[in-house]
């Protein structure tokens, strides 16, 4: 990892409260619990490419993304990571090891420069025990990730490359209301790892779609020009190209 920056990040008390109130997990907490949790939040600035934690590390903290994107993956012996997810602003990660006290189950790497806030296990678990709403939100997150993992396995087993690729791009993309374009800020290498295909095969399919003006390839990402075309492919289990 070649991260150039990994430093404490100062949040004012008001900023910490705002971050918690705007987060979908903590938004329904009472003002008293917001204040209590805000006092425990530590800010962290992490440079692109920096390892936030590695598989097997102790799971002592929960992370929330204030800015940037984080890649969750598992390394393989041949150097081809299995990329599980790319997550962005407002998302949390590190919750599995935090809850069960076991080592981390995957690597987390800053995909861009990131601003994070960190809550230690010793501060979070007592609050979760007092606030059933937080426990329910954590269960929802774990269930959603289990569903996504199941869907991912099904895609790898039953969908051809175009279907897998279309689904991944649609899931990873963010819309632009002004231009009706959607951009997935992901490299072709990581995209190939997500769908279980080589970078070369992934690039070949993207080039076909670029000729059809369904996508545009840019440095650092793929812009979706026709979401409807990709949605049709994602819903099909045929070659679709």
Task: Give an overview in words.
The chain has 241 residues and is α+β, with helices and mostly antiparallel strands. The protein is 42% helix and 24% strand. The protein has two domains: 6-155, Jelly Rolls (Sandwich), CATH 2.60.120.10; 159-234, Winged helix-like DNA-binding domain superfamily/Winged helix DNA-binding domain (Arc Repressor Mutant, subunit A, Orthogonal Bundle), CATH 1.10.10.10. It has nine helices and 13 strands. Strands 1-2-9-4-7 form a five-stranded antiparallel β-sheet. A hairpin with a 2-residue loop joins strand 12 (215-218) and strand 13 (221-224). The longest helix is centred in the middle third of the chain and has 27 residues, at 132-158.
Cα radius of gyration in angstroms: 19 Å
How many discrete domains? 2
Largest sheet: 5 strands, antiparallel
Structural class: alpha+beta
CATH topology of the largest domain: Jelly Rolls
Q: What portion of residues is helical?
A: 40-55%
Strand order of the largest sheet: 1-2-9-4-7
Shape annotation: elongated
**Which spans of ≥5 residues are poorly predicted at pLDDT below 50?**
none
CATH superfamily of the largest domain: Jelly Rolls
């Amino acid at each position: 990892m070649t991260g150039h920056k990994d430093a404490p990040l100062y949040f004012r008390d008001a900023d910490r409260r705002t971050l918690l109130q705007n987060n979908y997990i903590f938004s329904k907490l009472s003002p008293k619990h917001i204040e209590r949790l805000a006092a425990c939040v530590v800010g962290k600035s992490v440079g692109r490419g920096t390892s936030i934690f590695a598989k097997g590390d102790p799971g002592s903290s929960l992370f929330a993304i204030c800015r940037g994107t984080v890649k969750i993956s598992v390394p393989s012996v041949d150097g081809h990571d299995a990329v599980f997810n790319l997550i962005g602003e407002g998302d949390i990660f590190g919750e599995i090891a935090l809850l069960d006290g076991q080592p981390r189950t995957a690597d987390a790497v800053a995909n861009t420069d990131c601003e994070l806030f960190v809550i230690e296990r010793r501060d979070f678990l007592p609050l979760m025990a007092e606030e059933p709403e937080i426990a329910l939100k954590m269960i929802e997150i774990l269930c959603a990730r289990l569903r996504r993992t199941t869907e991912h396995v099904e895609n790898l087993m039953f969908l051809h490359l175009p279907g897998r690729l279309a689904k991944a791009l649609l899931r990873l993309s963010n819309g632009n209301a002004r231009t009706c374009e959607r951009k997935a800020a992901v490299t072709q290498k990581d995209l190939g790892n997500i769908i279980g295909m080589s970078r070369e095969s992934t690039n070949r399919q993207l080039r076909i779609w670029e000729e059809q003006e369904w996508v545009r390839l840019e440095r650092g990402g793929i812009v979706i020009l026709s979401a409807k075309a990709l949605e049709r492919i994602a819903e099909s289990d045929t070659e679709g190209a």
